[in-house]
Amino acid sequence: MIKILGRPNSVNVQKVMWCAAELGLDVERADIGGAFGGTDTDAFRKMNPNGTIPVLIDEDFTLWESNAIVRYLCAAYGAAPWVLPNTKTHGLADQWMDWYQTTLHPPMTTLFWQLIRTPSDQVEPAKITAAIDAGAKRWAILDQHLATSRFILGDHLSMADIPLGCAAYRWHSMNFTRPDLPNLRRWWEELADRPAYKANVMLPIT
What we know:
Residues 86-206 form the GST C-terminal domain. Keywords: Transferase. Residues 1-81 form the GST N-terminal domain. Helix content is 55%, strand content 8%. The protein contains eight helices and four strands, in the order E-H-E-H-E-E-H-H-H-H-H-H. Strands 2-1-3-4 form a four-stranded mixed beta sheet, with helices on one face. Helix 1 (11-22) links the parallel strand 1 (2-5) and strand 2.
């Protein structure tokens, strides 16, 4: 059985658990990280020297980095449309997954920490305003793309939707005023109807 080490409220763990559920995989998850601790032990650092979650254990194979785990699960256990048909389509999936990590993730992280994790008397409104503005500009890029595409790679959900789909829940659920991006909202609402997304992503943001 595949084992995932990581707490359920981590957006990176949510990527992996949602992907596994969409693939119909039987996965065992262990509470590690955050309030649960466990990432500083010698045993954990041997698996992941960064001390971060999630970590995948698949028999004698260990893998860290959430996007890498999503790619691995799709390649090892998926069927179409999770196994992409050619290198060009795979390149497009990588493009959007990496774009999330390098371009959209930073303002989303600022919003999360300022709105969720920072004590109210230490919140910096200027940081929130700047992160909303930066996030909106980046989400608008995806909104434009989704004007002509049901999902990120076309008519079917794929691994390209996983990282951005997890972030979209937080963008639409945290308490701030956001611009209406109709194509983004339509895509996110379709994700929100999926049982695997509801069970693994639409959790309390803590």
